[in-house]
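Entry 0007
Protein: TPM domain-containing protein
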Amino acid sequence: MRLLRHLFARSARSLFPEDSLHRIADAIAAGERRHTGEVMFAVESELTLGQLLRKVQARDRAMDAFARLRAWDTEANNGVLVYLLLADHRIEIVADRGLSGKVSAEQWRGVCQLMEERLQAGEPEAAAIRGVDAVADLLAAHFPQNGDGPDIDELPNLPRILD
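Output (structure tokens):
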């Protein structure tokens, strides 16, 4: 069944056209004006046959994307990746070690549930924006902007479609 879902997965580019990616990037930038963390959003349509045969899971892909996209490469170790694997209908959030002990697994799960509601309603862009807004709320609670000057944007805000 999983193989069929991946063979016939909807294209991430069809669900997230260029103008949608820019609106999500705007939401990430707006959130980052409230905190000093860094948020990234990445979406992947499906896994390859080899990955499926090796039983690669969405969490594994999210961890790989976190590393490949260098979401860990922030001065305060407070980068967060929101990852969506369309074929598996999975949302994964990977947070850098600076958030360890600050945000609980239940809070991250709450972000995923907000996104799942919008995805089930057929609103992928709204799901992404709702997710990055909720992540921004959590980051603002632990890494608020202090007003000492402009925050350096350490990671790109434009979402990544992983091929």
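Curator remark: The longest strand covers residues 38-44. The mean pLDDT is 94.
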